[in-house]
Every structure is written in structure tokens, then in C-alpha cells.
Amino acid sequence: MDSHDFDLETDLLHADREGATGSDVTPPIYQSSTFAIDDPQAMALAAATPGHPAFYTRHGNPNHAQVERVLAKIEGGEAAMVSASGMGAIAATAFALTKSGAHVVAQTMTYAGTRALLAAQLARFGVEVTFVDQHDTEAFAAAMRPNTTLVMLETPSNPLLGITDLAAVAKIAHAAGALVSVDSTIATPINQRPLDFGADVVLHSATKYLGGHSDLLAGAVVGSRELVARIWETHHLLGATLGPFDAWLLLRGMRTLAVRVERHNENALRIAEHLSKHPRVRRVYYPGVTSHPGHDVAKRQMRGFGGLLSFEVDGSFDDAHRVAQRLRLAHGAVSLGGVESLIAQPAAMWPEVNASERAREMGVIPSLLRLSVGIERLDDLLADLDRALQ
Ligand SMILES: Cc1ncc(COP(=O)(O)O)c(C=O)c1O
């Protein structure tokens, strides 16, 4: 079947039909670490082939190959690579696309793990990083240097849902000879396809919406065949290999991505609008509301605004903590993107960071709550929030 004619919502279900037998509707789990190859030439070829699905599972596995085919298809890339976590994908990309003496441009507002990787780890290997405000496109242009090899974007970003103008920044980066990676975890390919806007590599914490059920950790890289192979060269040596069962579980989760994201989008937009008018809420951060500084850009590059939002309770750290505790539906837990709502207080994760302007830029606002809106019935979620905010 040639699935080129289909929308990505259909590809989620059918892009991997050439399974091992050609007849299994649900694929088997290849829970095998290694694969027998008798012929020495075939063995050498398999060993040298990035992501070979039947050589050794750290290199690749049939369950990886299957989910990678679907990921490449729905992101509009030539190839994909899965890893054991989002950080596995981000670390492999950062190390593969830089070297000692290189320079990276990244966002001030970015997932804390990505920031720590860039600021604390890459720096140890002689890579310099400049962090810029993602809403200020000119700041990217000003930060570029002759040795800039990589511009690492994240949009929407965690935890304040900042928006980067993908087309504009990709143009700036390419003019300076740098590659562009985009962490599109919070958007999902249903809402945003960064490759369509000029990005070279798309990254995901597949732990979140792609898996969708808070039951696995996984990461993904999507791009051209050449770039994914380059990142794989580093990745398979770092060893953050996704287990075959988790790859299978990820594929199963992705089957329902389109319908889940549609509901996440609807629920989050309505909740953001409701909280924007709430007397106990100081400020709402969601790209779907017109007051958001990235709203116009988000409208241009996103089909929906996603299921994650943050809001500042009109009060102290303790007041916000009490609101989170009073919620009956959202679990007080980190992570996001599952079918069930989760609430987290970013400042509680970094008690050592004071409320300086830099902390604020990173989203460490004492009374900020980050809500990963699930697919529960909207009225129940609204009533629960109102009760907790009373
Ligand atoms: C935007 C974003 N990117 C990457 C990650 C890291 O993903 P993982 O926890 O799967 O390593 C996270 C985790 O919260 C995230 O929110």
C-alpha cells in the first residue's frame, strides 16, 4: 500500500504495514538482544548499517524500525531513530552535531534537562553555548558566530510555553551554516511539523504525548537519512537503547495520537480561556490565548496549541502549592502528555534557584503551576480547578 496519499492521522495507523509476516495487524514484540547472521559479509554489512533492525538491539531492532517508519512519516522526514528517553535523543543530537571549539545557540527557556546538558556537560567538552530569548528572533541573528554548528530550539517550550518563529530562525541559522534542531515534544506532529518550516532535525520526548499513557520512557529523532545516520553513530555508542517492549508500547500509544491530541487541544484552550478571566489567577501562559506574546507565530506554524499550560496563582508559593494539593483530578506529578491530567509546581523542583530575573526567564516563578491537561471531560476539569482556586 502506498500511504503517501494519506493524512498523517491515517498514517499513524497504517504507515508500518510491511511487518515481518506482512499479515500481523498488531506487530509481535522482538524481545531479542541479538540476531543470527551466518554469512560474514552480511554480518559486516549489518554491523555498518545505521539502525539495522536485525543485527544487535543496541544498533536496531524490528520494533524500533516499525515505530521509526511511522515517526518519519508523520513528521515528514526521511528517517527516524528512537532512544531510551527524550534526553537520550537530545544528548545524542547535541554530541553528534558539535565538537570541541564549536558553538551552540539555544533558548533561555528550554526543558531544564536540556539546559543542564548544554550548560554543564557540553561545556566540559569545549563547546560554548549562548542562550537567547526565543521570542526575540533578532537575538538569534546576533548570537550566531562563524563556529556555530547547531541552533537548538524548543517550541512550545517548557514550562512557560514560549514560541519560536521556526521559519525565521531556520533561515538565520542556515545563512550562518548551522543546523537547526527542534524539540517538538509539547506540540506533537499533530499540531506542528518543524521540518516543514526548515528545521533539520525534530526531537521528541516520546515519554509524553507520543506514548501518551505515562507508562514508558522513550525519545525520538527525525530528519534526513544522512543526519539521522550521523546522530545514530553517536547514539549507539552512548547506549540509550529503547527496549523492544517499550518500542512496541510506544507504537501502540501512537495509534491514538491524533484523537488524543485533538481532545488535549480542546480541553487546554478552554481551560486557558477560563483561567485568563479567573480572579485568583494572575497570568496564564498558553499560546492559544491572544495575550500570549507568541500567539501570532503559533497560529502560523501550529494546527492546534497543545495540551500544556501554565498559570500564576495570585498569591505565594504556598498558596499555589495548596491549589495543586486541592485538585482532585490532576495528580501532583512531573512529566506531561499522558491521558490523565498532571499538575507540577516548577519552583518546587528548583528550591535553590531564587526569584531573580533569570529564574523568571526559566519559568521558576514561585506561584507558577504547570498543568498538563488530560482528556478527562472538560466540565469536570473546570469544576475541579474552580473548587481548588476558591
Ligand atoms: C520538552 C521536553 N523535552 C525533553 C524532555 C526529556 O524527556 P525524557 O524525560 O523522556 O528524557 C522533557 C521532559 O520533561 C521535556 O518536557
Walk me through the structure.
This protein is α/β, with parallel strands linked by helices and 390 residues long. The chain has 2 domains: 3-254, Type I PLP-dependent aspartate aminotransferase-like (Major domain) (Aspartate Aminotransferase, domain 2), CATH 3.40.640.10; 257-389, Alpha-Beta Complex (Aspartate Aminotransferase, domain 1), CATH 3.90.1150.10. Helix content is 40%, strand content 15%. The protein contains 16 helices and 12 strands. The strands form 2 sheets. A 7-stranded mixed beta sheet has the order 1-7-6-5-4-2-3, sandwiched between helices. A 5-stranded mixed beta sheet has the order 8-9-12-11-10. The longest helix is centred in the last third of the chain and has 20 residues, at 257-276. The radius of gyration is 21 Å and the shape is globular. The N and C termini lie far apart (55 Å). The model has no long low-confidence stretch (mean pLDDT 95). The chain binds pyridoxal-5'-phosphate (PLP). Pyridoxal-5'-phosphate is lined by residues 85-87, 111, 113, 154, 158, 183, 185-186, 205, 207, 217, 219, 335.
